[in-house]
Write a structure and sequence with these properties.
By secondary structure, this protein is of the alpha+beta class. The protein has 3 helices and 8 strands, in the order αβββββααβββ. Strands 1, 2, 3, 4, 5, 6, 7 and 8 form an 8-stranded antiparallel β-sheet that branches. It is globular. The protein starts with 13 loop residues before the first helix and ends in a 12-residue tail after the last strand. It binds a DNA duplex through residues 39, 41, 47-49, 52, 55-58, 71-77, 79, 81, 94, 96, 122-125, 162-166, 184.
Length: 189
DNA sequence: TGCCCGATTAACT
DNA sequence: GTTAATCGGGCAA
């Protein structure tokens, strides 16, 4: 059985944590799978929600590491982040895609789809499949309904520019599992 | 206060 | 390739 991720795992630079999350297992209420795509954000980064300072929405980012920051995107979708670094860094990793392995029936029902490849291949899709909403913002990642397990063995991680942003769009802070079919978009070679 | 834009997605043409 | 759905935040006035 893989090792459960301790809170100390998240108390490091967001650029160390993000690639280390590739291949880790994310479960929420017993459904989920392997993390195959993430992006790193830091408060010195113009693309980050924390860049302009603390607000009610991003307050969790300014708190201690090892907690979930869930925000509403475009007024429609929910997106899940893991807060990292010492408290006050306001850094987080956006979880962008998961290869579904557990609770397939529940995820298909919530998404209204059968195609496994499209169940969790995007930050909004992932939250819909796992039923993660703003009600789960600010919860600790080392206890239910969240469950996180370290990857059982080394994996090949690729990096590239982040998706859907206009500021600091050149930074290669998107990380993915090389060759995965479950990415929200392929990485350019 | 009002206006514009965004860490998105699905359904169009 | 384009667009609607839909709302909180930043910034100008």
């Amino acid at each position: 059985m893989p090792k459960r991720l301790a809170r100390a795992f998240f108390s490091r630079s967001v650029h160390e944590v993000a690639p280390d999350l590739i291949g880790a297992t994310l479960l929420f209420k017993g459904a989920g799978g392997w993390i195959v795509e993430v992006e790193a954000y830091h408060h010195t980064d113009p693309a980050a929600h924390s860049f302009h300072g603390l607000t009610p929405r991003n307050a969790v980012m300014f708190g201690p590491p090892g907690y979930a920051y869930v925000y509403r995107s475009y007024g429609i979708h929910w997106c899940l982040n893991f807060v990292c670094e010492p408290k006050g860094s306001a850094a987080a990793v956006l979880i962008r895609a998961v290869e579904p392995t557990v609770g397939l029936a529940a995820m298909r029902r919530r998404r209204g789809l059968t195609d496994e490849r499209l169940l969790c291949s995007g930050p909004g899709r992932l939250c819909e499949a796992l039923a993660i909403t703003g009600a789960h913002n600010g919860l600790a990642l080392d206890s239910r309904p969240y469950e996180l397990f370290a990857r059982p063995s080394a994996v090949e991680v690729v990096a590239g520019p982040r998706i859907g942003i206009t500021k600091a769009a050149d930074k290669p802070w998107r990380y993915g599992l090389k060759g995965s079919r479950f990415l929200s978009k392929p990485f350019n070679p």
